[in-house]
Write a structure and sequence with these properties.
The complex is a heterotrimer.
Chain A (H helix, E strand, L loop, with lengths): L1 E2 L6 H12 L11 E2 L1 H13 L7 E3 L5 H6 L16 H6 L2 H6 L8 E4 L7 E6 H6 L8 H14 L27 E2 L13 E4 L6 E5 L18 H5 L1 H8 L13 H6 L5 E5 L3 H11 L5 E5 L2 H4 L6 E3 L5 E4 L7 H13 L1 H9 L6 E4 L3 E4 L22 E2 L4 H11 L4 E3 L13 H19 L6 H15 L1 H17 L4
Parallel strand pairs in A: 1-2, 11-16, 14-15
Antiparallel strand pairs in A: 3-12, 4-12, 5-9, 5-10, 6-7, 7-8, 13-14
Chain B lengths: L5 H32 L3 H7 L11 H6 L4 H31 L7 H13 L4 H11 L17 H12 L3 H9 L4 H12 L1 H16 L3 H6 L8 H21 L9 H23 L15
Helix pairs in contact in B: 1-13, 4-7, 4-10, 4-12, 7-10, 8-9, 10-13, 12-13
Chain C lengths: L1 H15 L1 H32 L10 E2 L5 H4 L1 E2 L3 H7 L4 H31 L4 H12 L6 H12 L5 H8 L14 H26 L3 H9 L4 H25 L7 H7 L7 H4 L2 H8 L6 H29 L7
Antiparallel strand pairs in C: 1-2
The chains are: A alpha+beta, B mainly alpha, C mainly alpha.
Chain lengths: 486, 293, 323
């Protein structure tokens, strides 16, 4: 069960699959394609009615954690690291699986190609050159560009942001996180953003803090963590840069449209948007050209061990407990990951029709590729096996290669930890809307006096159960550490 | 002929002006929608929506009509609308008429019975279980029709219209020996044309716009109703945009903004023509014709 | 003579069989009418009453695998987050306030439009304009939201561009919560008034034209006719429509508000309704039991309200009372 549109040539690919596996697997695959928005609900309804579905897509950004906690999916441990399933063994090394487990068991197959989607501020190269500026290499350069744009083109919005994203990871602390988890790598699923600090040996939880906590909450932390500005200092920069963004930033749901339409000179997004933005830009504005400023310094310089990750995939495939064909499904997946050939069939389509190989790791899309746009993150994405498209801009390809290189990453503490919200469900539901509101205002730098606003909100949140959530979080993390988690 | 006083004429003139202004105010966005659906995606990105098409293109419509499924969807929806409205009107009027008879003893009980369901629902899960598991209506066109045959809102509206029919008509017919069903069918219905037209229109629109049940219960492409199919095309255009961008094909920008507007045009077209057609039943005096003499 | 004998011999039996007798008499008298109601009653039973058991989800820690019968019963726990929340009174107020405005102004606008149309003669003008004013009803809220943004945006909106050209300061509409109830009402009227007028128009056509004739003979002006004939005769319909709308008064117009206001936190103080608030609160949790609990709350209070107003309606205009 997937969401999206059935690719036009899906049947061709399926036929080819059946042809190849007639003697070995002899399976027929039935794929159901649903509309994205209703997918989450439909999934639950299907399960509630006990219908037989053999594999479903789910993800952390959808309903994966809740569904696992409620026991919807089968445990898949026995299929991995098992010689009877060589394909799976090869494509999913133990470390990868461990990071994607829940309480030590694997409930959903992780699907990702890269472990991080690098954040970029997209710039109008043509404008920059017209203004006589050098390529942008630092925040100072970026600010110079924005100021120049504001002077020369007063009708343009210098920087366009998305309302609920705000400045996102701009100006974020770039220190390597060894014994704490803070922005930009906060623990997710807790309703409120908590920064968690562990002891230097990473065996005890020293505390968890959030916006507006009084100074006393930071006392027990080793320097430099005992200063709230270490965690939230970037908010001051947001306030200072607020003059460069849209006045109605909070209603903005699609800043790329502003950028591609030439109404803004820069916009913040991620690497995977590169091609799409570029295409839109050059078709609507003749002469426009795109370039990207990777705003994290070590990412821009493409240094090793730069990006912290928990190796968790953003997409997964799970097998519901209502399925009676789990074995067959896993055999299919095993086949899929067994060889580059098998994998490429589903991910890219028929060779020489939809795509052409370009070396071992890359591929070139062919004109007929529009007939087979398979959503790879729903079935086939894999760090070891997915190819990178050579059709991207050279700059983007470099960054993609960098993202695909395992040496780029270092492992964050508490990688295997997953928060279970059920004991504090009511509190989270009470706290979330309030904190979310405040967070949005801060993220866009809309409140110059954010410190006192945060303190006020903090008191409100405490009356709604903030501390109950906090202590539950600490309790769960400590239990995780005590059980040997890292 | 009674001559119109000048104050009457003034009032009439004001009415004409107000209505015309309001009508223009309503039409402009609509015309903009049509024009923008015929404009190129890049011109919309660049200059926004406009009343006249810019860089005329049929790209959005091509996307929607790219294969047969849209024609089949039109067929499905027309079937559902015609059959659904017909049956729904029968059942609803049959339910509403007795409730308009003052002498009916249990009418308030039935009124309450129907009204209660307007407010209290069992929720999505219960409905899903009932329809897909116990009634086995999955993947059947009838799932779009049967559950919607009695709309409490429409029923109460119909009852209200029947209320205004003079009871003396029914009584005189009873004295002549007619039974209730005859009265209902041969006397009350024919003079309730504006009411029938109104409620019929509402039902027709509801059936025409059905998509939620299709989303939940229908997986067979051939049975997709129009609204649902168009919604999927819309969502998937957005979706395909992201995907195609990842493989960066030159010049392949899926027209998403213009498509969204084109879907509006494609789905409302036919139903708009129904209302003007029904207006001929909105003629004064129809409901009281038989009482005279 | 015959009758009185029959009456006398029937009396003792009727007393004994009184209860069953009343029911049967009623059926005998109006049997065919009840028969007519049967298909409707049956359909409502199957599709509305059978699933009603699902309401119990609001009181459960619902788990899709365990189903309705197997999920754990948790009493009123699911209601906690809503009742104890910071914003509960505020969003309830917003919901009621906005809905009351919509009902009030919407009805006035629809009635006005209907009355205006009924006063016109020109056939072609009438048909065309009548259809035109219903057009906005067919646009989806997403599309309407696009227009609203294009109109009111602080940086690029048409209204602000026009203000600037006249020499005024631009207004930051999307940052000012106070004016939004008005804006929302205007949008709602634009979208629904033309279409809503259809019902009132149909009612007006049912009025006996003789009444108007005799009023004209008495020398009544157009305006007097509207005031003393048309409007009073519309009363039952207006009351019915308002009663019907009242049941949903605790349900905010999620589609409209979410499309137009979206996640703009600055506007929440005046536009956040129960439905949008709960949507945000449960976004990550995705808990069906809690969502159902709020729905039960909304239905229950709406129900109590309707029963109360219905009793009033019964006194003053018994025909339009719901039950």
């Amino acid at each position: 069960m997937f969401f999206g549109d059935k690719p036009t040539d899906m049947d061709l690919v399926l036929q080819e699959f059946e042809r190849r596996t007639n003697d070995s697997l002899g399976l027929k695959l039935n794929m159901e394609w649903n509309a994205m928005e209703d997918y989450r609900q439909k999934l639950k309804l299907r399960l509630a009615a006990g219908e037989e579905v053999d594999a479903v897509f789910d993800a952390s950004w959808m309903s994966l954690e809740q569904n696992v906690a409620q026991g919807y999916y089968q445990m898949l441990d026995k299929y991995f690291n098992n010689d009877e399933y060589p394909g799976l063994k090869k494509a999913f090394p133990p470390q990868y699986l461990e990071a994607n487990s829940f309480n030590g068991h694997l409930y959903a197959i992780p699907l990702t190609q890269l472990f991080y989607d690098i954040e970029i501020v997209y710039i109008r190269k043509d404008l920059r050159e017209r203004l006589g500026l050098e390529p942008i290499e630092s925040y100072a350069d970026l600010e110079a560009y924005l100021q120049a744009v504001a002077r020369a083109y007063p009708d343009m919005i210098p920087l366009a942001l998305k309302g609920d994203r705000g400045f996102f990871k701009l100006f974020a602390n770039e220190d390597k996180q060894t014994h704490y988890r803070m922005a930009p790598h906060m623990i997710s699923g807790v309703g409120v953003g908590f920064q968690v600090v562990l002891s230097k040996d990473a065996k005890h939880v020293l505390g968890a803090v959030t916006y507006g906590d009084p100074l006393s909450a930071y006392e027990d932390f080793p320097s430099p963590l005992n200063d709230p500005d270490y965690f939230y200092g970037s908010f001051d920069r947001f306030v200072a840069w607020n003059k460069y963004i849209q006045k109605d930033v909070l209603t903005e749901r699609n800043p790329q449209v502003l950028f591609a339409a030439g109404k803004s000179a820069a916009s913040e997004a991620v690497l995977s948007n590169w091609s799409e933005i570029r295409q839109k830009l050059i078709t609507s504005i003749p002469g426009a050209e795109l370039e990207g400023f990777v705003y994290s310094t070590c990412q821009r310089k493409m240094e090793k061990s730069c990006i912290g990750t928990d190796y968790r995939a953003w997409n997964n495939l799970a097998i519901p407990v209502t399925s009676k064909h789990a074995d067959e499904m896993m055999k299919f997946l095993d086949w899929l990951f067994q060889s580059q050939e098998n994998h490429d069939l589903f991910e890219l389509g028929m060779e020489d029709e939809h795509w052409m190989g370009a070396g071992n790791e890359m591929y070139k899309p062919m004109p007929a590729a529009t007939n087979y746009l398979f959503p790879r993150y729903e079935l086939t994405w894999n760090p070891a096996m997915s190819r990178i498209s050579a059709g991207n801009d050279p700059e983007a390809v470099e960054l993609l290669r960098y993202s695909a290189d395992p040496e780029t990453y270092y492992r964050l503490p508490l990688s295997g930890f997953r928060f279970d919200p059920s004991p504090v469900k009511s509190e989270i539901a009470k706290v979330q809307p309030v904190s979310d509101q405040m967070a949005q205002v801060f993220r866009n730098g809309l409140e110059p006096d954010w410190r006192s606003a945060a303190a006020k909100t903090n008191l409100k949140l405490r009356s709604l159960g903030l501390d109950k959530i906090r202590s539950e979080l600490i309790k769960q993390i400590q239990a995780y550490l005590d059980a040997g988690g890292t | 002929m009674i001559k119109e006083s000048s104050s009457d004429r003034l009032l009439k003139a004001i009415i004409y002006i107000v209505l015309s202004l309001f009508a223009i105010y309503c039409v402009i966005p609509f015309v903009t929608v049509i024009s923008s659906s015929l404009s190129s995606e890049s011109s919309i990105l660049r200059d926004g929506y406009s009343i006249v098409p810019r860089e005329f293109t049929l790209a959005a419509y091509n996307l929607i009509f790219k294969d047969d499924t849209i024609y089949r969807a039109y067929g499905v929806t027309i079937f559902v609308t015609v059959v659904g409205t017909a049956i729904a009107m029968l059942v609803t009027c049959a339910l509403a008429y007795p409730l308009s008879i003052r002498a009916l003893k249990y009418k308030n009980g039935i009124n309450f019975y129907v009204y209660f369901t307007m407010l209290f629902h069992g929720g999505l899960v219960a409905n899903y279980l009932l329809i897909s598991k116990y009634l086995g209506m999955r993947d059947s066109i009838w799932v779009l029709i049967i559950p919607a045959l009695v709309s409490p809102w429409n029923m109460f509206l119909m009852r209200n219209f029947f209320n205004s029919v003079d009871e003396s008509l029914a009584e005189s017919a009873k004295i002549d020996g007619a039974n209730d069903i005859y009265i209902f069918y041969k006397i009350v219905l024919p003079i309730s044309l504006p009411a029938l037209a109104t409620v019929g229109l509402f039902y027709a629109m509801a059936f025409w716009n059905k998509w939620f049940e299709a989303m939940l219960y229908i997986s067979d492409e051939n049975k997709f109703p129009l609204q649902y199919l168009v919604m999927r095309i819309m969502n998937n255009a957005d979706f395909a945009n992201q995907l195609s961008a990842k493989i960066s094909l030159p010049n392949y920008v899926v027209p998403t903004l213009s498509t969204r507007l084109a879907t509006t045009v494609v789905t409302i077209g036919p139903i708009i023509f129904l209302y003007p057609f029904l207006q001929k039943y909105f003629v004064k005096g129809l409901m009281v014709g038989a009482v005279k003499g | 003579m015959k009758d009185s004998v029959a009456l006398r011999t029937r009396t003792p039996d009727t007393d004994v069989r009184k209860k069953g007798g009343a029911f049967l008499t009623e059926i005998r008298k109006h049997g065919l009418l009840y028969l007519l109601t049967l298909p409707g009653i049956l359909l409502v039973f199957v599709f509305s009453y059978l699933p009603m058991g699902g309401i119990v989800i609001a009181f459960q820690n619902f788990n899709a695998i365990k189903g309705i019968t197997g999920s754990e019963f948790v009493g009123f726990k699911n209601f906690e987050f809503f009742i104890q929340s910071n914003e509960v009174l505020h969003v309830i107020f917003n919901t009621l306030f906005l809905n009351a405005l919509f009902i009030l102004f919407g009805t006035c606008a629809s009635v006005a439009i209907a009355v205006m149309f009924s006063e016109l003669g020109g056939k072609w003008f009438k048909r065309i304009v009548q259809s035109l004013v219903t057009l906005p009803n067919f646009l989806s809220w997403t599309v309407i939201a696009m227009f609203v943004t294009a109109l009111l945006s602080s940086d690029t909106g048409m209204l602000n561009k026009w203000l600037i050209s006249l020499g005024f300061e631009p207004i930051s509409f999307f940052n000012e919560p106070a004016i939004w109830p008005i804006i929302l009402v205007l949008i709602k009227i634009w979208q629904g008034a033309g279409f809503g007028a259809i019902v009132y128009l149909a009612t007006i056509t049912g009025i006996n034209p003789d009444i108007y004739e005799s009023a004209s003979i008495d020398g009544a002006s157009r305006w007097k006719k509207i005031r003393y004939i048309t409007l009073p005769l519309l009363k039952p319909t207006v009351i019915l429509m308002m009663l019907l709308a009242m049941g949903g008064i605790f349900y905010g117009d999620f589609g409209m508000i979410y499309a137009i206001v979206g996640r703009n936190v600055l506007l929440y103080p005046t536009t956040d309704v129960i439905d949008t608030y709960v949507f945000r609160a449960l976004m990550e949790l995705n808990d069906m039991g809690m969502a159902a609990a709020v729905g039960v709350f909304q239905s229950l209070v709406g129900f109590i309200l309707v029963i109360t107003v219905n009793q009033l309606a019964r006194k003053f205009s018994p025909d339009s009372a719901l039950f």
